[in-house]
Amino acid sequence: MSTEKLPTRSENYSEWYNQVIQRAEMADYAPVRGCMVVRPYGWALWENIQQALDRRFKETGHVNAAFPLFIPMSFLEKEKEHVEGFSPELAIVTIGGGEKLEEPLVVRPTSETIIGYMYSKWIKSYRDLPVLINQWGNVVRWEMRTRLFLRTLEFYWQEGHTAHSSADEAAEETMRMLNVYADFAINEAAVPVLPGRKSEAEKFAGASASFSIEAMMGDTRALQAGTSHFLGQNFAKAFDIQFLDQNNQLEYCYTTSWGLSTRFIGAIIMTHGDDQGLVLPPRLAPIQVVIVPIFRTDEEQSRIMPVAEQVSRQLAAFRVKLDARSEVTPGFKFNDWEMRGVPLRIEIGPKDVDNGVVTAARRNQPGKAGKSTLPMGDLAAQVAVILDEIQAAMLAKATRFRDEHIHPADDYASLTQIVQGGWAYAFWCGSADCEARVKEDTKATTRCIPLDQREESGRCVVCGQPARSRVFFARAY
RNA sequence: CGGGGUGUAGCGCAGUUGGCAGCGCACCGCGUUUGGGACGCGGGGGUCGGCGGUUCAAGUCCGCCCACCCCGACCA
C-alpha cells in the first residue's frame, strides 16, 4: 500500500484510472499481456452487479444455463457478418492432448453460434417458444490495445440469448433488456446512461439492429456500458432454428442477444471516482460502512473497541467492516478506505464515546463537509437514510456532469469543437460516409441515436441533407 | 502490422571513464506512536530481459533475439 497521492484526474486521467484500480485492489495485471486478475475486492463488486442484474433477469422470465468455452471454427463461419466482425480477434486452439485437431476450436468471443446450434436442436414447435436463457461466463477477444476492465483479452460478462416466434416479440425482448440495463445502471450503479440505437457501422456483427446504454466518464469520453441486439432471423437461418407454427408452417425464429460485462466496473470507477480514489454507490459497494476506532493508550483501546464492536453488530444488516488494524494510524485508514470508495465511514474515538455519538464521514463529500455526528441510538436507521442519500446524491451529481457536457451542435465547426470536451447532439442523415468523416476529423464516433428524442427534423450536421433524428457524437473508450 | 520508447529487488528508479549492484517505497523484527497518509533502530530480498561476442574484468561496449509500454489501424 503506497502512501503517495494519486495523480489527479485532470493531470493524467488514464494514469489515475490505472493506479486507483491497483491501489484499491480491484484488479491487477496478469502475466499474459492484456489479461487481468480480478482481485477479491473487485470481484465482490462484480458479484453485487451480478445479483442486481440476475434478479432482474429472473423477474423478466429468464433462466440461467452454461454453454461451452470451445466452439468449432466452422460455426463462426456460418454467419457472414459475424465471422467478418470477429475473425481478427479470435483465439484458436489447434492442438489438444498433443494431437493436431481435425477442426480448430475457437475460444468463444461470444456465444450466438453455439447457442444457435443448440437452439436448433431444442426448438421444434411454437410451443417451445420463447426460449429465454442467460449465461454468466467469460469470453476471449484478442484485442490490440487493452486496459483494465475496459478492454482485456478475457473478460467476464453475462450474455442473454432468446428465441421467439415473431419479429415483434423479439423486438420487444430487445427493448425490454435494454431497459433492464438502463434501470440497473441508473438505480443500482448511479450511472446515468443514455439508451439508444447504434449506427450500422457500430452495430454488432450479425445483428439486424443493436442498442446500447452509453455512459459519460469523468473525462467526458463515452463508454458503451451494455448492449442489446435484435438479431432478426440472421442466426436462425445460419443455424436452422426452425419451428412449426399453429398452422403447421415451418418458420425461422427471431432471436436476440444482450450482454453486460466487467467493463461496467470501469464505468462505475470513471463515473464516480475522484482525486482521492474510488467512490462506490452504496447499493453495489462491497463494503458499505467501515468503522475506524481511534485510541492512543491501552486504557482508551479497552474503552473504544467494545463500543466499535457493538456498533458493528448494530449495523449487521449492512455490509460493514470494522478496521481493527493496530499497525496503521487512523489517518492512514481514512485515506485507505477513501481510496477503496467505501460510501460511509464511522469514526469512534474517546471524544465520541464521551459524548455518546459517532462521527460519520460521507465518501461522496470529501473533507469536513461530509462529516457529521450521529447519536448512538438507532444507528441502523440513521445509516440506512444516509446510504440512500449518498446513492441519490451520486446519481444527481453524475447526471448534472453529463448534462453539462452534452451540447447540441448545429454546424460542423461547433461539432468538432464540442467533441473535444463533451458530447455533441446533432442531426445526422444516417450515412456511413458522414459518420466516417467525423471520426477521421475528430476521433469521435456516433454513440447512439437516443430513443426518446422529440419529433423534429433538420439537416445533417455533416452533409446538410435532410435528417430525421439526432445522434450523440463523442470520443469513446 | 507501421512509428516511437523501455527492460536493474514486489513497485518506482539511479548506476559516471568498463573495476565490490545501489536508493526510495513496500516487506520482516523490536521500541515509541495513533482524531487526516507516524518515527527510530535493526534486517531480508538480485540469473542487471535472454543468448552470443569484445575484454584481465561487462548492468555498462558490440551483435542477434525476446518481452512490455506509448501513438496509429481494431474494439463489449
Please describe what this structure looks like.
With 477 residues, the chain is of the alpha+beta class. The protein contains 14 helices and 26 strands. It has helices spanning 13-23, 40-59, 73-76, 80-86, 112-122, 167-187, 234-239, 263-272, 298-314, 330-339, 350-355, 379-404, 412-418, 432-442; strands at residues 27-29, 36-38, 63-64, 70-72, 91-96, 99-107, 131-140, 154-164, 194-197, 209-216, 222-230, 242-244, 250-252, 254-261, 289-293, 320-322, 344-348, 357-362, 371-375, 406-408, 423-428, 445-446, 449-450, 458-459, 466-467, 469-474. An eight-stranded mixed beta sheet has the order 3-7-8-14-11-10-9-23, sandwiched between helices. A five-stranded mixed beta sheet has the order 16-15-17-18-19, sandwiched between helices. α9 links the parallel β15 and β16. α2 (40-59) packs across α6 (167-187). The longest helix has 26 residues, at 379-404. The chain is globular, with a radius of gyration of 25 Å. The protein starts with 12 loop residues before the first helix and ends with a strand. The structure holds one RNA strand of 76 nucleotides.
